[in-house]
Amino acid sequence: MLTSIIFLPLLAALGILFIPANFKFVIRCLALLATLLTMLLAVVLFLNFETGLPGYQFVQQIAWVKSLGISYHVGVDGINVGLVLMGAIVAFAAACVSHDITTQEKEFYVLLLVMTGGILGAFASLDLFFFYFFHELALVPTFIMIGLWGRGENKNYATFQITMYLSVGALIALIGLLALYLQSGANTFDIVKLTEHVKANPLRASTQNLVFPLLMFGFGILVSLWPFHTWAPLGYGAAPTATAMLHAGVLKKFGLYGLIRIALPLMPQGAQQWLPVLAWLCLGNIVYCGWVAMRQRDLNFLIGNSSVAHVGFCFLGIASVTLIGVTGAVVVMIAHGFLAALSFALSGYLRQQAGTLEIKEFGGLLQKLPFIGAVMVMAMMAGCGLPGFANFAGEILVLFGAWKATTFQSAQWFVVAAAWGGLIIGAIYMLRAVRNILHGPISEKWAALQDVSNGWRRLPFALLLVSLVLFGVWPRLLTAKIEPSVKPIVKMATPVQSPATKSVASVVGE
Amino acid sequence: MILEIAVLVSGLGVLLIDLWTPADGKRALGYGAAAAVALILAYSFKLDATAAQFAFGQSYVLDGLALFFKRFFLLAAVVVLVMSVDFADRIQTGISEFYALVLFALAGMMFAASANDFTLLFVSLELITITFYVLNSFQRNQQRSLEAGVKYLILGALSSAFLVYGIALVYGTSGTFQFSELAGNITAVSQKPIFLLGMILIVAGLGFKIAAFPFQMWAPDVYQGSPAPATAFLAVGSKAAGFVLLLRLLFGVAPEIARHWKPLLIGISAVTILYGNLCAIPQRNLKRLLGYSSIANAGYLLLGIAAVSASGAAAILYYLSGYLFTTLAGFMVIAVALRQVEGEDVTALAGLGRRSPLLAAAMTLAMVSLAGVPPLAGFFGKFLLLKAAVQQGATQPAFYWLVAVAIFGVVVSFYYYFGVIRAIYWSNDASQAAPISIALPMRVALWFCIAGMFYLGLFPDAVLGFVEQAVKSLRV
Fold first, then answer.
1. CA-to-CA distance for A332 and A390, rounded, in angstroms?
2. Is residue A485 part of a domain?
3. Disulfide engineering: B62 pairs with which of A12, B1, B53, B360, CB 3.0-4.6 Å?
4. B426-430: long-range contacts at Cβ-Cβ below 8 A with a sequence spacing of 24 or more?
5. Residue A69 belongs to a domain
6. Which residues 6+ apart lie within 8 Å of A232 measured at CB?
7. A473 sits in which H/E element
8. Whole-angstrom distance, CA of residue A258 vs CA of residue A219
9. pLDDT digit string (tens) for B9-48?
10. Domain assignment of residue B393, yes or no
11. Mutate: best of B317, B355, B379, B383, partner A, most A CBs <10 A
12. How far from A37 is each of A5, A7, A12, A24, CA to CA, in Å?
């Protein structure tokens, strides 16, 4: 099941390679069909997932390199089943909105499908090697797509910057993973076996303190952790719509997933040492990047910065290492995936129609674009953290989790207050954008704007919005699955503290 | 021994048959030579080298490592010969000699793989180097080709001088030419500074062959000027010959000294990576670019040498196997696609995607593999090399810095490798639009290289097992 979810897009990409480039319609249909099937399979997977069972489901394992202990091992638990579903839905939506690509369609769809397969593979992998392998498989098409189909005058610089940052981040993480593999002495890349091995023979504290930051910063750069976030708004601003949707929505979550799945349970002591740093840095995301978003004049930069701000909540949830906080982080990952994809799809549509994304050029667009406008209002509301959207469920859990956190005990009130303040900043720029773009008098030059005409073109927007609302009003659909899987991770990541150190810490706190 | 004799006999055979072949039939002799080498390659799989076999009073050894590299060189030679036939229209006279020289160079490489003695090491390296003096300047009417030949001659002679001087010092202090004997009393002789000086000079001589810093200057010029098949063989065969000798010497004979030299090796590796990658950025000539890329790749391979471990040696062998398919594919595309173009500029690739999808795909895959992107061979090779280096980091933190440099190099290399891909598909100023026809054997060779890149990237298990078996003959 999982294997077909991963390899369906890859096989479709291979198939498209053998279709002559002028059969554009066939190529697009094949891409749509492949992503649609993938999405349907992912939905079936999600529905058939048995909530609450320990361990992994839909597991498949094939030995690959025996001497190094690498195997193709896929499976889902409560954490990644939602991510796979989200990735597949976003991929289909991204393929749907790609009709704005009018040059070299064949190459574009090949890259898009490779990226999709890589993303889903990365989330489904239970083997460190394949985990990295699939991520890299998805990452390189991202650079190529931005470099070749990108937009705006800053395209080349954006491509350069995103390539540098993400390659460096990925390679730092690779070194961390290699060090983990070598230091554990288990001679296996298998995450399940590695976790069991480490449970019995923990890594030395000095090793953990060295390797954990490699993973934290390596993965952190991939998720635009402040202050390594500058590539994100620029890159997404220049990227073609589908690429921005897939990267900001899905691929970026790889780093967070890696932190939860690998860094936390395998290196608890390293985590204790470094998570306070992460907690402070994520405030940079939430507050600083929110502040930056407030000053943006370009809608894409605003969305890009707000997306950077939102992942700050994921970091905060992870840094809290509490059951509620980490669960919340996973919910935010999924919710933000839908939201970021939806936002970039909207801004992509607007750019295609209007040719610009300067916020102050717009105004009153709701009159001309009732459907797009309405969806945009809802997306912005979701971005503010309005109850009823999945983001709210996740963010509130993260805040609760952070309040009970022991990792940054002395400062948790400050961290929580700052994060809460970040929410207000979010509300300010989101609402202001809604007012400036959608309300007020409309300029004459927008008389020719056209709304999304038919149901087929509306489908991607509707799909993403429905997912946001569904998981917003019924978050238990996610949390019930996530919580039992997060529990053992949090348990492994929380060291048994001796009473003495605990009391010292609480004294400092007072 | 039988393999080398067969190669030499086919080389002489080509020269002899040439006498009775009419001028227009000479070109096809290359296919005969390629077929003969392919047969020898097939026969090599009947040989068994689980226990080392010696000849010529222990100066020649046939063990797992030697057999691995012999197959490697034979495989490379088959492709290079096929490529030479395609290239023959650009060589005015003496195409049969070109084939014969490739075969003689091949024999030299195969002897180098089996060298167990400083005399055989020197003789085999000279056999390789001297044939390449001729091969590199084979396009006698072109100034660039002659320049390449002369440059290689001067620097090659210099490196031979280093080598001979080093060998003399080593012999003077240890009293033996033989590797096995030397390995026996290495702890005693490695106390003598003169012996260490000799070893350093020998390693420097080998450094020329692999184009490691500071002996890399010749590579870009020679790569640029030489005929494409000669460059390809130089890039793959000569480099691998240098590495097999380094492995034999540092890992087989004197691992104690190599361990002692780790800081030096780390330094050379780091500077080589930086030099190759940074200098490749502004290059516009494709062959020159690949010349710098080959320096960078030598740097990555030196990661494995610096690690002085069995996993490092295995990683080198694996990386070289991937490098064989990748580099040969790249040079084949250059040889075919830039047939009518003067001066192999990157922009000459414009429109290749429409003119010949196969060539465009092969070049793209070669660049992607060199950049180390999954799922191609280069990725798994780099993965193994990095793993070997990180493994040493636990005892020697300097390896972490080396790894950091390697990462920087990989990121930089994305720029120029993807620049080539960009030129293939996304530049509009295509000067020519005519489809390119490719001869059938060349087509087969291209598909073979593509398959090799994918196979090594997707199914590493078999070759890795083979490689790990091969490095068991070393002492690390």
1. 7
2. yes
3. B53
4. B426/A104, B426/A148, B427/B347, B427/B350, B427/B351, B428/B350, B429/B347, B429/B350, B430/B350, B430/B351, B430/B354, B430/B355
5. yes
6. A224, A248, A304, A305, A307, A308
7. helix A455-473
8. 7
9. 999 999 999 999 888 888 889 999 999 999 999 999 998 8
10. yes
11. B383
12. 8, 11, 11, 20
Helix axes A155-184, B377-393, angle to 10 degrees: 50
Which of B370, B347, B351, B371 lies closest to B359, judged by CA? Answer: B351
Q: Which of A63, A137, A179 sits opposite B375 (nearest CB)?
A: A137
Nearest-neighbour CA in chain B from A156: distance (Å): 12
CB atoms within 10 A of CB A29: 11
Classify residue B60: in a domain, yes or no: no
ipTM more than 0.85? no
Give CA–CA dist A164/A483, Å, rounded: 36
Helix B262-280 crosses helix B398-425 at what angle (to 10 degrees)?
20
Angle between helices A390-403 and A370-384 (to 10 degrees): 10
Residue with tokens 């006279």: B93
Q: Count up the domains in chain B and report the number.
A: 1
In a domain, B461, yes or no: yes
Q: Are strands A70-76 and B60-62 parallel, antiparallel or unpaired?
A: unpaired
Please tell me the total number of residues recorded for chain B in this structure. Answer: 476
Which residue of B355, B411, B422, B469 to mutate against A (max A Cβ within 10 Å)? B411
Q: Judge whether B369 and B457 are in contact, CB under 8 Å.
A: yes
Asked if residue B72 is part of any domain, the answer here is no
Q: Which residues contact B337 (CB under 8 A, 6 or more apart)?
A: B348, B349, B352, B355, B356, B359, B363, B436
Residue A261 Cα distances to A123, A213, A230, A242, A486, angstroms: 10, 15, 26, 27, 9
Interface contact A14, partner B, CB < 8 A: no
Contact A147 B422 (CB under 8 A): yes
Displacement of CA B29 from its chain's centroid (Å) = 25
Q: What is the mean pLDDT of residues B318-347?
A: 88
Domain-located, residue A504: no
Query: Do residues A277 and A100 touch, judged by C-beta distance below 8 A?
Result: no
Residues 156-185 of A with CB under 8 A from B: 160, 163-164, 167-168, 171-172, 174-175, 178-179, 181-183
pTM score: 0.89
Read off the tokens for B338: 């830039």
Given a cut of 80, is residue A408 above it in pLDDT?
Answer: no
Residue A379 is part of which domain span? 2-495
What HEC string does B124-179 produce? Answer: HHHHHHHHHHHHHCCCCCCHHHHHHHHHHHHHHHHHHHHHHHHHHHHHHHHCCCEH
CA of B193 vs chain A CAs: smallest distance (Å): 36
Buried-exposed string B286-323: b where 16+ CB fall within 10 A, e elsewhere: bbbbbbbbbbbbbbbbbbbbbbbbbbbbbbbbbbbbbb
Burial A436-449 (b: 16+ CB within 10 A, else e): bbbbeebeeebeeb
Burial of A159 from C-beta contacts in 10 A (0-12 / 13-18 / 19+): buried
Instruction: Give CA–CA dist A308/A287, Å, rounded.
Output: 10
Instruction: Calculate ∠ Cα B179-B180-B181, nearest 5°.
Output: 95
Q: What's the pLDDT tens digit per position in B429-470?
A: 666 677 888 889 999 999 999 999 999 998 998 899 889 989
The domain containing residue B445 runs over which residues? 261-476
Cα distance between residue A331 and residue A318, in whole Å: 12
Provide the token pair at A89. 């839905």
pLDDT band at A366 (very low <50, low <70, confident <90, very high): confident
C-alpha span between A129 and A68 (Å, rounded)? 10
In a domain, A86, yes or no: yes
CA A334 from centroid of its chain's CA atoms: 7
Q: Tell me the per-residue pLDDT of B131-163, one tens digit each, with 9 for 90 and over.
A: 999 999 988 888 888 998 999 999 999 999 999
The more confidently predicted of residues A506 and A126 is A126
